[in-house]
Design brief:
Layout lengths: L18 H7 L4 H13 L23 H17 L5 H16 L3 H16 L15 H5 L29 E5 L3 H12 L4 E9 L2 H11 L4 H9 L9 H7 L1 H9 L1 H13 L3 E13 L10 E4 L2 E4 L3 H6 L3 E8 H17 L12 H8 L12 H10 L4 H10 L8 H9 L12 H4 L9 H12 L3 H12 L3 H13 L1 E2 L5 E3 L9 H14 L6 H20 L1 H10 L8 H10 L4 E2 L11 E3 L2 E3 L10 H14 L5 H7 L7 H9 L10 H21 L13 H8 L10 H12 L12 H7 L4 H5 L1 H8 L9 E15 L5 E8 L4 E6 L1 H7 L8 E11 L2 E12 L2 H6 L3 E5 L5 H14 L6 E7 L2 E8 L3 H11 L4 E3 L1
Parallel strand pairs: 1-6, 2-5, 9-11, 14-16, 17-18
Antiparallel strand pairs: 2-3, 3-6, 4-5, 7-8, 10-11, 12-13, 12-15, 13-14, 15-16, 17-20, 18-19
Helix pairs in contact: 5-7, 8-9, 8-12, 10-11, 11-12, 14-24, 14-25, 15-24, 17-24, 20-21, 22-23, 24-25, 25-26, 28-30, 29-30, 38-39
Length: 929
Amino acid sequence: MSDEDRMRFETDDFYIKAPEEMSDFFENIPEAIENTVKIADKCNYDFEFGVTKLPNYDVSDEFETHTDYFKKLCYDGFKERYGDNPEREIKDRLEYELSVIEKMGYVDYFLIVWDFINYAKSVGIPVGPGRGSGAGSIAAYSIGITDIDPIKYNLIFERFLNPERISMPDFDIDFCYERRPEVIEYVGRKYGIDHVSQIITFGTMAARMVIRDVGRVLDFPYSETDKLAKMIPMEIHITIKKALEQNRELKEWYDSDENVKQLIDIAMALEGLPRQASTHACGVVITKDPVDTYVPLYLNDGNVSTQYTMTLLEELGLLKMDFLGLRTLTVIADCIKLVKQTRGIDVEFDKDMSDQNVYKQWGDGNTCGIFQFESGGMTNFMKELKPDSLEDIIAGVSLYRPGPMDQIPRYVKGKQHPGHNEYTHPALEPILNVTYGCMVYQEQVMQIVRDLAGYSLGRADLVRRAMGKKKLDVMAKEREYFIHGQIDEDGNIIVPGCVRNGIDEVSANKIFDEMAEFAKYAFNKSHAAAYSVVSYRTAYLKYYYTEEFMAATLNSFLGNLDKVPIYIDECRRLNIEILKPSINKSFTKFTVQDKKIRFGLGSIKNVGVAAVNNIVSEREKNGEFKNFTDFCERVKNESINKKCVESLIKAGCFDGMGQTRNTLLASFEGILDTINNQGRNSIANQVTMFDLVSDENVEEIKYNYIILDELSKKEILSNEKEMLGIYISGHPLDSIRELIKKNTNINSLQLKNVEDELKNDNSNIFKDGQNVKYAGTITNIKKKYTKKNTIMAFVTVEDLYGSVEIIVFDSVYSRINDILYEENIILIDGRLSIKEDEAPRIVVKDITEFNENSIEKKKNILQIDITELSENQKKRLRGIIKFFSGDRVNFKIQVVDKAEVKPCGAIYLTEQILDAFKEIVGENNICIV
């Protein structure tokens, strides 16, 4: 705002004016006002809300109605799922669901969803077993929309659809993320391209973001804007107003500083407004008539979407579907194909999902690659729980979130000591015994309301929703009905209530309180159950077809190498050898050969899909390549140029063909030129002198190799990293892998996932400003002059899993600049910097060279960070240092105050004394360096 040359409007008249103002402006042209009214009248359009407008689904003439066709599909599928003689209760459930679906007018909805899922399955596109509350429908299970038995896992249909909750049902469908567009294309062909559109979504100004935006516009100092933004708690649906109520320090700053007050007041006025428009990642609307007859459209970069968001489209009664791409479905499908190729086996999952070998992986912490269970916190939870059934997996998915996590110790205790669960009232046992007395699912809340107080399941869902949204007025009425029941004007009992059903008032009140508290966090069991099926299948494949599963997992990340190193590391832990790419053995993707995983050619830099296809096609047609020149002669075409060949050499594709990589790098251009010249000069049927020489000697005579010794190990690794994004033949840090692990407390993989860890774990393992130790190789240095004309640096440091940027401020740079050079291995002592608008970084306090000698040599310094200690803590610290100092010492002490490191005497350190120091300053503020 302070920039006089900023872009601005030349007038302040750009706003919607009152009728009086417009009349004054156009007093000499009254017809302009009249014409405006005429145009407005002609543009009048009434939107129809609350009326469902489903697209037309064509049914064969042999069926009189759509309902007849739908029922035929359901009965046929029901027989396949449950056999010829299912229990009466299950058959009644299907009949009930069919009656509700027909009564509410959603037969066509089910048929439309079934149709595109059926198409996807018919052409081999992987489809998920279900998502959301739809997994509670036995009708959906019968016709193959979902793939988990709602009866076996006690999933409730009314959570998905019931007459008392008048809203469109919502099937969100997961597809293989690579082939998802094919399903959308099918829907376009089926209903017409102009009947299908993607949906707009608006990014809004959230609390932290709007403070940063306003601070930037007002030229507020970045450090203070950043501090203000970080005072907003990282909670879902947090607002600035809520933050002012929760954070006393923020409120005091707001009240005492006029500039801060101005910034926050403007931010609150803007909070929640749209910031940018984009296309919804998975939302698609399908209409009976062309989409533009219902809603306006928006064109952005050639993509058409509706101008209305999905919630408004639903209010208008239009059919909105979520076509989601799930990477894990692609992994499962690729793994199954690989198993067929390598072992000749058709994978069949056990229908009961009860294989204890599979569950043992969770108990052993072997969860790398298992869907939903890869985070460190979740892995530890499973190791403690030791699950042995899908119910445990479903509960694990539901509990491991902020809020329900408090129930984890109770759940684990119940699992470990069966029969000792505690219930507020015995009537809860049949409902909560599956979760050892814990309320975990929304469906359990509904069952409690139904079974204890006599509600219908439809109305129970309304109560559950009111509790989840904290509708206090509704909850006050429902508490009375839940406890004492509800009677109409004629004295008829609508809801019996707990007391009529033999449950005392005190227990009923307590149960209602527990439900009201837990309903805020309760998870949809139908969704958790469906996704747990996916988790089980990944675990099943990992146990029985380990090599194929890991290869498929690696393939799914070829376009994003951030996670590849961790899966390569997991392969090594599982004793699976990773083979470098080979010109004669590799295909486009990772493959499995003799229980080893072979790197694919498609992941090599500068080697395109066309080049790989040509190489594989030529190899399959005319046999393996005999040597490097045989390869060059047979694949000469436009897609395989010099850059491509150089990349193949650097990646090690020609290893074992008689020449070193160094020789090939020095010779390949000359060899390619020779081949090209021969092609231009050759005459059909002409015999050359090379045709008279034996095959053994022709290559040596024909081509001029520049024979060189092999590249150094360091150069080989560097080339592999450049071409493949990761190291294959080893890692520059392999020799000190254990030393790094011992002397650091964070790695690049953890840093990349730090925000996810915070959201999922809620245990603040990583937080902004935390002291960390990180080690790796310097790969890049950017120096920058500060306003004081001193030098600071941004340094990229790579460890075994990836790289991290570290910030070296001028005060530290002047001390350690002599060891800041590329390829030097360093140990960083610093503090974590976490900002929501950038990747986590480390602000350096100190850097030392990292090798066995220097680490061992410096292992006698106790370093204490006093930056954030209170005066009382500092006083106690001085006292304990003085108390333990003496003639006999084995550890020097140094304190870190902000970026400054100061010596502070020496003591004789033992484990007990170290614990005493930790008690005073906190474990995160002390380390041995």
